[in-house]
From TrEMBL:
SUPFAM superfamilies: Ribosomal protein L6. This is Large ribosomal subunit protein uL6. NCBIfam families: L6_bact. It comes from Agromyces tropicus. Part of the 50S ribosomal subunit. The keyword Metal-binding does not apply. Belongs to the universal ribosomal protein uL6 family. GO terms for cellular component: ribosome.
Length: 178
């Protein structure tokens, strides 16, 4: 039995979970998220708890059991607390500025790079070298942060670029001078 999949998910007050066939809808104070459950897995709501079960011990069923439970739990956390990821811009002359709902980066390119916030995601700038990506969908927040980091990854010699808050960049020794 899946250690994660068999755990019931408690539904906090103010959150409404509806199961309609394969569709699971989670409504909370921050918004609404929907999830389509894969074929063999079954989801039930009983006395303020969500229960995820699987019909057999096939390899696919076992792998989807814990995944489905975790995705539903992430949706419940998302509509109550939300998710956020911090990014830091490191480098001389590197900065970020808020332009409406978009942000504009100066990263040593010949032009500024503008990033629009996808639907359901808010980009917040603190100072001129910190950026926070926030939203209710954990996957969308992580993907947006990864796409922003991809613009200018931290390089190993001086550590310049966009990195996650708290990320440690392994540094290399440069060429030995004469």
């Amino acid at each position: 039995m899946s250690r994660i999949g068999r755990l019931p998910i408690d539904i906090p007050s103010g959150v409404d979970v509806k199961v309609d066939g394969r569709a699971v809808t989670v409504k909370g104070p921050k918004g609404e998220l929907a999830l389509t459950v894969a074929q063999p897995i079954e989801v039930k709501v009983e006395d303020n708890q969500v229960l995820v079960t699987r019909p057999d011990d096939e390899r696919e069923s076992r792998s989807l059991h814990g995944l489905t439970r975790t995705l539903i739990a992430n949706n419940i956390i998302g509509v109550t607390q939300g998710y956020s990821k911090g990014l830091e811009i490191v480098g001389t002359g590197y900065r970020v500025a808020q332009k409406g709902s978009a942000v504009e980066f100066a990263l040593g390119f010949s032009h500024p790079v503008t990033v629009e916030a996808p639907a359901g995601i808010t980009l917040t700038v603190e100072g001129n070298n910190k950026l926070t990506v926030a939203g209710i969908d954990k996957q969308a927040v992580g993907e947006t942060a990864a796409n922003i980091r991809k613009i200018k990854k931290p390089e190993p010699y001086k550590g310049k670029g966009i990195r996650y808050a708290g990320e440690v960049v392994r540094r290399k020794a440069g060429k030995a001078g004469k």
